[in-house]
Write a structure and sequence with these properties.
Layout (H helix, E strand, L loop, with lengths): L1 H9 L6 E8 L2 E7 L23 H6 L7 E7 L6 E2 L5 H9 L4 E5 L5 E5 L3
Parallel strand pairs: 3-5
Antiparallel strand pairs: 1-2, 1-3, 3-4, 5-6
The structure holds zinc ion.
Zinc ion binds next to helix 3.
Length: 120
Amino acid sequence: MYYRAKNLAINNGRTYHVAAILRRRGDVIKIGENTDKTHPRFKRQYDDGTWASHMHAEMNVLRFAIPGDEIEVMRFSACGDHITMAKPCRLCEAEIKKSGIRKVRYTNWNGDWEVMIFDK
Ligand SMILES: [Zn+2]
């Protein structure tokens, strides 16, 4: 399963290779990668008025989330041989909270898992 996530992320054609896994009671519901495509719900406008033309991996799976789900985010180096920092950015973090997700696991610079818990 992590292998599938990795394949998606590595082949996404982007500089960053991030995969997010949406889990419901331990089951994998959806695996998403960061892409060039965006989704209307997550359209973002920068301060200078331009629109963001990409979607983070977390956003990619959030559409399928229900409250109580968990998300795992992992980032792979360009060559795919190691795992690195994948902490959700502030925008993703806000959207994750809004979706009712209470627990996020993400990989840190050492490739280890860290956990983020959101209180209600
Ligand atoms: Zn983000």
